[in-house]
């Protein structure tokens, strides 16, 4: 339950991604406007052109031929994937405005037979509401319409579209304001329908600022629903949800063809027109839960960069583009190919398309995309790299028609900059490219949104999820491979193909597309908006749908960005320690949603401050019909009015229950995936409803609701504690007095004082039932797991072995313990992990202490592999205010070798090296490879004190108590230190090496300079020789295992390993072992050859 | 002391001695060299077997076309999901409940790939018997490509080792004694058997005549230790050696045994997988300083593993058994004898080196190719004694010997160098 932790600012999942400016990120208004203006202008001038016809070159590439359709006799069903609108001309016979430009909604989708569909939906008009002034009556409507129409038209800056009609209709309607309970009597509102979406903003602004009608003043009238995207408005009003099935009944639609009017505008196989009130939008249930076989294109490009410079589209050619196309639901891609520049040796199983000229390569690829006609475009970081690079490169080379990659023939794909300013991420620039009808689904965005990882490189990600390393060719080598022969280019192509294939495998493994599609269906928003926008639009979409059916409308809220705080969730003060007995954990199932349901918390049930008296008089609202929350807010009970949010939550949770039940009986693996994706989407959605009410920069924050929710949560945790502790006592006949040792947000940890898992589970179940019975339905306390043993470190920091059944544990569960933080070295995570395993799984606290001491000793004696010490930071910019270690290092490396030095955007790995006292930390960073090659000494003290000390003490203090620090950090094991002598810097140049005895390390006496042992050690020769050989033996084991692993990973036995994947955990190891083995070999050789 | 027969002895293990060490090199050179030499050896055989009309092609010449019928020569790579992987071992995610090393990781799903100098192709076909196949084997395959990118194998050909010198009859029994797995660290459990063995070697059992015909003793590895040292998890690059004191004592003890034996007949001692020697094949001889007593005798020598020598005409070749045990892990071969037979058929002592069997990164040779067919071919440290007289397709006969581990079986193998007859001699006290 991520959402519930947030009270200020955006919630967790939303932090790291590009977003539309109108969402929950903070953005200054000016840039918001600028962005708006910008895209309007572009629509007109840059986007339109004269696109090429589709070519059909290959049966394999093209979609199956569409069936012959007769609109009078046939119905047409398709799954829509993209909904958007454009400004078009009215089509005779269709509803809506008949004059001048009108908005037309375009839906793109695929039929079950795999044919692509473009459907123009006509006649839907944008509208909004304002409060009706007292004097306003039915008869004023027409006058207002005319007056406002003139004002709006006059307001248009240069009316190049020749707009003749702006305000279409003004009606007086009766609606309820969603915000606050005011009885069931409807209020009067004016509904204003306009011709184009942009007139909504204009009309409401003019109503506020100017005098429209002399006799009636609208300036104080609050506007309602004037901040809703036109696409969402359309989907809400026509019950279309993301990725659902649309049916065009026979006789109600028109087919476009080469001799129809209007002519087809798209590259889709079937193009149709329909009125907005004539199509059927199917709920994604039962038969209509199916998924069409849509096409996913994953691609990756390679550029031949120059040494030391990140590829620039104006300078560096695109040399390869690898493509994989898969049909949703199938296991393997049915198109695998690579477009190469210059001859490339064939690759079995993939088509190699060689080109002499780069312009030809780009031209053919663009035609390939149009022919394959993918519904979804994916890849790794395509949004910010591959796609913009291709477009810029093609523009630079003046490749004709390259930029027509979307489904509308005459619309170019154009790069737009999106700037997002957020508290957490700082200023971020993202690029967005339009592909009318194709959904860009960048895997990187999915990962940034849904997963918290140490590193987001494709290497690290595929290692994390697929346990596979990926060969990484350093960009400085790519150009060399391209300039080689057809075999070296083949090698590059293999690499490129793999980079195109991995995103597909990851999408499959993470079930990303299925899950996102289900999320779109559940929340009702288009697929693409899930990646480009935040949580709020999803709740908004659901709220609007619900409100519409009940006659509610939403006021527009302008964010004040207030910093008003309210109290967070409660934490029962932890009784820290290491618990060797089973600890039962009781959890509230979907706590915040169930609180909202149980106590009927909603906008529509809120009794606004100061209105209670009024309501008592006017609406006869009795005190027992109102509930006071622990946060001192009042809400009417559900018998007075059932809230919308509780209803939304109920249907979400009921749907989740259904999905989970279906999942239990479903056997088809693909359908299981859909159902599992759905239940997950439902859970996340239910939790985000609470977040919506708490988001102060959101569309409609309501702190009365979110504050009450957390307040209820706090009292419930307290109450649970009291109930459990007062019932489970020796006085009541139980083994011992139960003690709640910790409680947080939605869970309570109880020590029943019993020794067996079985008994603790029994008591846990019993207690959950007992306590649940004291709460309002549907709040339910569930017994979920037992931690045995349990290490409670602090608030939100604990670890335990997690049991759900007495036989075996499910996993080791760690919360808040240094395992994934990116600014730590892996040493910390690995040490913590092993110590916790020893504590919890092996139940061997002494062993854990011994291990920690051993690692510390190894660290001080320089025996730790350097890959464990590497810290990685992204080189985002070079002009940080404060000096930063990785920036200083990047500059240092550039001086050494500009070719391989990290560039802007690269991630810089470094280790902290020993330096003279008082050297600032940022000067102590060094390139791990340089450290290895020159035996630069590591600053072991830094790693011990800055990295290991705190987390180690945290987990060992509950066990060792006060003495932890002296035992771990100051014990005997810290006395021995190995000082490495650097080959560079300082005094290195002045040192001469004298031979010393391999046994006692003393300098060799005269006459023994060539021997291996001094006279004193000579009798122990056999022993000492065996020791040296033993050390060499271990190094040989490592050497063999490491280098054969790389040989396997690169997929070729006969070719040299050239991988430079620094994220790979063995990258530094394999380098180090070479050097160590050389050194060790020399030591062994001092004993003389083994000649007989 | 029995009177020993004289034999001409020639140590042919120079190829297994490392002259220089360079660990900056990678393993691709070894594969490349193996493939080049084997291609040279296999090409005429393939032409002879399948006729000249079948072209020998390189994979890059297939150009991704379908239905090409041809001969391919390449190195086998077996893709195995459970192959030991250092990456998996150190993976953070798998730290919980570390997988115990599997005794055997061969599975029906294993994929067999043929790789030539530049490219790879998946092989399929009944004849392939992928479960019996091993990475690193070089072979010629006859067959055709299909639309799925597979190469369908119709027939296969291995090198089966080089020519063999015929044995001349001498009419005098000369016996070679093979022993392995003396495991001195555990010797207290079979000290009596070891004593009996020594008496037997010396002919003190009234077996004077037999002892007189014993011309040589080969100790085929794991004399000091016969099992791996338990692994302690650490974050170190290479584990530091556990206290070596116990092995030092064992070595001193061994020195005494060897000195005693070498007084009655020539003794060659190979290092084994777990001995205090280097790890990569070929393992280098123990250093003289480890056996000060025995080293004084000219009849005692430490040799490489693998080890090859000629006794009169008889060519003897063998290992301490790593090649065989590695094959038993990665294939579903049923016994050590079958694994040993396979290496002979494949014409390569240790095909899985360097992939899963540690091996020095040679850059210009592959010393493990069987360029001459041995008469006696042995592998040490097997679970039990097994033997067979193998006849190659061209009629060359080789005595295969799985030398039993002495610590486990208290037995040794004896081979007649002329008739190639072979038997087991058991010294366990209970069975006596």
TrEMBL record, chain A:
**CC annotations in GO:** delta DNA polymerase complex; nucleoplasm
InterPro entries in alphabetical order: DNA-dir_DNA_pol_B, DNA-dir_DNA_pol_B_CS, DNA-dir_DNA_pol_B_exonuc, DNA-dir_DNA_pol_B_multi_dom, DNA/RNA_pol_sf, DNA_pol_B_thumb, DNA_pol_palm_dom_sf, DNA_pol_type-B
In this protein, which residues make up the domain named DNA polymerase delta/zeta catalytic subunit N-terminal?
Answer: 123-200
Protein EC: 2.7.7.7
- What does the record give as cofactor? [4Fe-4S] cluster
Annotated compartments: Nucleus
Q: Does the keyword Disulfide bond apply?
A: no
Q: Where is the DNA-directed DNA polymerase family B multifunctional domain?
A: 525-959
> Per the UniProt entry, what is one GO biological process?
base-excision repair, gap-filling
Residue intervals of the DNA-directed DNA polymerase family B exonuclease domain: 222-461
What spans are recorded as compositionally biased (Acidic residues)? 22-31
Q: Which reaction does it catalyse?
A: DNA(n) + a 2'-deoxyribonucleoside 5'-triphosphate = DNA(n+1) + diphosphate
Q: Which CDD domains match?
A: DNA_polB_delta_exo, POLBc_delta
A UniProt-annotated Pfam family? zf-C4pol
GO-annotated molecular function: 3'-5'-DNA exonuclease activity; 4 iron, 4 sulfur cluster binding; DNA binding; DNA-directed DNA polymerase activity; nucleotide binding; zinc ion binding
Q: Where is this region: Disordered?
A: 1-72
Asked if the Swiss-Prot or TrEMBL record annotates the protein with the keyword Iron-sulfur, the reply is yes
> What SUPFAM superfamilies does this protein's entry cite?
DNA/RNA polymerases, Ribonuclease H-like
Query: Which top EC class applies here?
Result: transferase
| Gene3D superfamilies from the UniProt entry | 2.40.50.730, DNA polymerase family B, C-terminal domain, Helix hairpin bin, Palm domain of DNA polymerase, Ribonuclease H-like superfamily/Ribonuclease H
Membership in a protein family: Belongs to the DNA polymerase type-B family.
Q: Which PANTHER family match?
A: DNA POLYMERASE CATALYTIC SUBUNIT, DNA POLYMERASE DELTA CATALYTIC SUBUNIT
The protein, known as? DNA polymerase
Q: Which gene encodes it?
A: Dana\GF10365
Automatic annotation (TrEMBL), chain B:
* Keywords tagged on the record: DNA replication, Nucleotidyltransferase, Nucleus, Transferase
Domain DNA polymerase delta subunit OB-fold, by residue range, is 26-156
Positions of the DNA polymerase alpha/delta/epsilon subunit B domain: 177-386
Name one cellular component (GO) term. Answer: delta DNA polymerase complex
An example GO BP is: DNA strand elongation involved in DNA replication
Q: Which GO terms describe its molecular function?
A: DNA binding; nucleotidyltransferase activity
Q: Name where it's found.
A: Nucleus
What's the family? Belongs to the DNA polymerase delta/II small subunit family.
Identification of the protein by name: Uncharacterized protein
Traced from the root, the source organism's taxonomic lineage reads:
Eukaryota, Metazoa, Ecdysozoa, Arthropoda, Hexapoda
